[in-house]
Amino acid sequence: MNIPNLLTLARIAFIPLLVVLFYLPFSWSMPVVAGLFAAASITDWLDGYLARRWDQSTPFGAFLDPVADKLMVVVALALLIERYDAMWLTLPALVIIGREIVISALREWMAEMGNRGSVAVSWIGKLKTTLQMIALLILLAFTPGSFYAQLGVATLYVAALLTLWSMIQYLRAAWPHLSRAM
After folding, report:
1. Of the candidates 11, 37, 33, which has an alpha carbon nearest to the alpha carbon of residue 143?
2. DSSP code per residue over 128-155
3. Among 75, 94, 107, 166, which residue has the least CB neighbours within 10 Å?
4. Can you give the residue ranges of every domain in the chain?
5. Closest by alpha carbon to 110, among 100, 102, 118?
6. What number of CA atoms fall less than 13 Å from residue 140's CA on the CB side?
7. CB–CB of 27/21 below 8 Å?
8. pLDDT tens-digit profile of 8-38?
9. Is 57 helix (H, G, I), strand (E, B) or coil?
């Protein structure tokens, strides 16, 4: 066990706390939820940075980091779907969640085929993740209907478009392997 892996585990441990705080009926709960989400988002960057910098990458960390990221994003999106209770927020949230399921399954299948490298994370995927985290942070921090919440929704739509774009790229990269398996 090393510090990058502990940061990843901490991100997973934040998830139940995030949910409990989300449902507390106090005026301070949503800013605290947003702060906790921001801290978790920073650990997403920090654990990878430290693992590379300190040469502490492990197979466990390589497996757990994307799982922690996806869990955090899906839980935040599910909470926001309930909070906003609107199709215009649910639609990009479902696009993002659906893409995560498809790409996770694709990566698993490609790893079984010995071709995991052909669906490695791209710069579009990294940009998508960054915009997702920013959008979710804004949407958690601000009241639905406020200017900042509208900015958060717009950012979530941009992230959803990048989500589709990156999914298409991953599927194109994997297509030669997929078509041979049909």
Report:
1. 33
2. HHHHHHHHHHHHHHS-TTSHHHHHHHHH
3. 94
4. 3-181
5. 118
6. 30
7. no
8. 999 999 999 999 999 999 999 999 999 999 9
9. coil
Query: Whose CA is closest to 79, among 91, 100, 68, 93?
Result: 93
Whole-number Cα distances in Å, 19 to 34, 46, 69, 120: 11, 23, 16, 31
> CB-based contacts of 13: which residues, under 8 Å, 6+ apart?
none
Tokens 């466990």, located at residue: 60
CATH number of 3-181: 1.20.120.1760
Task: Give per-residue pLDDT as tens, 91-150.
Answer: 999 999 999 999 888 888 887 777 666 666 678 888 999 999 999 999 999 999 999 999
Q: What single-letter amino acid sits at 3?
A: I
Read off the tokens for 86: 């609107």
- Average of per-residue pLDDT values in the chain: 91
Counting residues of the chain whose pLDDT is more than 70, the rounded percentage is 95
